[in-house]
Amino acid sequence: MDIVNSSSINLLDKIRFVDGRDRLTDYYTKLSKKNLKMAMDLINQESLSFTALFLLQPTINALSIFENLSIRNKIGIDLINETTMYNEPVNSIYLSPKHVQKVYSVMKWVLETGAPDDGLSDKFDELLDISAAVLTKEYRDWSVLPVITDMIFKRNKRGFFIHDLVWAFFESRDTKSLVLIGNKLQSEEPRDVELACKLLSFVPGIGDEYTKECDEKYSTFINWIEENIIFLRFTGESFQLTRKPIVYEINLEAKYLCKMVSIDTGETLKALNEKECELLDEFKILDVDNRRLLSGFSLSMHRKNLKLWEEWMRNPIIDQLRIARSGGVYND
Fold first, then answer.
1. Are 272 and 280 in contact (CB under 8 A)?
2. What's the pTM?
3. Which residues of 41-65 are buried (b: 16+ CB within 10 A; e: fewer)?
């Protein structure tokens, strides 16, 4: 589709695409002085991009037409005018329950319509990062994660700052979204693969260095996520604090019992019975290699043959280990 000729594109954006930002500012200044109603109708249309509003913000301030803006655009201008936004992401008058849904929709509009112009300016990119963080952390909106992922990898190729976007991505605490990064292990672009390895370095077998075994790394990741997704706990570690954060860790105890855990606490979602608690008391005193062996074997058997798994779990843990080491062969 020719975006410039599309009927769904706002006229102000069309001018921006064809003639550039200076022409946009000049056109809107003249239109506002000549026909204010037409100028306000145009800028308040739902089809306007955040990018266009951002570029017109100095003009809006100079013309003193803020009060004629739609609520969406007023919140957008407030966002642009803020100087320290991580502590106060929006003007306090919009934080009431009355406006919370509107603030959410504006943040989503900012990110989704502004993302194609990422790199416009440091201020503009900061606003995109803030919107991403608010959407994922405060509103838990996972629908924007593909947009954030695309921005992370495109920005990385340009050599721009990505840590805040990466933080926003992981703060979603959506384990399924890890596949969006994992898919980049198959990219033909070495920088994409290198970054994917770095972001997924907490996955055993991935590492944080680029190698030619991309297909092998991708298979390793897919197998790992399919096996462990319901046993993962979000740790909160980030690239702001360490070069190799362990963003997610596996609850081996829950994996051993085949119990889903809370992503936030790592605790099993269902209470354990007395027998399960006794098993865990024995499991906890094992060294980490044996815990990994038992938890992996337990899950594999549970998925293949529930009846046989239940029989295996009735064994003393020393016998469970013997059977697991022998590959599941029962020897009397």
1. yes
2. 0.88
3. ebbeeeebbbbbbbbbbebbeebeb
Residue range(s) defining the domain that contains residue 291? 275-325
Nearest in space to 164 (alpha carbons), one of 174, 177, 175, 151? 151
Q: Which amino acid is at 293?
A: L
Assigned domain for 53 exists: no
Q: Measure Cα distances from 33 to 30, 187, 283, 292 in Å.
A: 5, 51, 76, 72
Tokens of 137: 């952390």
Burial of 138-163, coded b for 16+ CB within 10 Å and e otherwise, reads ebebeebbebbbebbbbbbeeeeebe
pLDDT digits (tens, 9 = 90+) for 99-128: 678 889 999 999 999 999 999 999 999 999
The answer to whether 30 and 23 have CB atoms below 8 angstroms apart is no
Q: Where are the alpha helices (DSSP H) in the chain?
A: 11-19, 21-34, 36-43, 50-63, 71-81, 100-114, 122-133, 145-158, 163-171, 178-182, 190-199, 214-228, 252-257, 274-284, 288-304, 306-313, 317-325
**283 within some domain:** yes
Quick count: other Cβ atoms within 10 Å of Cβ 112? 17
Q: Is residue 311 part of a domain?
A: yes
pLDDT in tens, 226-252: 999 999 999 999 998 888 899 999 999
Residue 317 lies in a domain: yes
What sign has the CA pseudo-torsion 33, 38, 44, 49? negative
Q: Tell me the pLDDT of the chain averaged across its residues.
A: 90
Domain count, the chain: 1
